[in-house]
């Protein structure tokens, strides 16, 4: 239940930031969206009701599935690299990229 609330709040924050016009806020929105996906993947793994994924437990039905944890680790690496690429594109962008809304000039 708490993972669903956390994922919902992260998605809400991500959508709010993605609706902004500044590039940095859009990038932060993508970061939050990636974190929400990671929380959903970890919640899908059911790690709260199981033990560690490695070791030698007596009952193998209590061992956690390591696959969702591997997915999250891969998603963290991919999200980090995409964030770096977006930040580089935001910094090296052209100066004629106009992100501010300007009123139309009055013609005389």
UniProtKB/TrEMBL annotation:
It comes from the Bacteria. The keyword Transmembrane helix applies. Keywords: Cell membrane, Membrane, Transmembrane, Transmembrane helix. It is found in: Cell membrane. It is a multi-pass membrane protein. GO terms for cellular component: plasma membrane. InterPro entries: CPA3_antiporter_subunitC, NUOK/Mnh_C1-like. Its main location: membrane. The keyword RNA-binding does not apply. Pfam families: Oxidored_q2. The chain crosses the membrane at residues 23-44, 70-91. Belongs to the CPA3 antiporters (TC 2.A.63) subunit C family. This is Multisubunit sodium/proton antiporter, MrpC subunit. It comes from Kocuria marina subsp. indica.
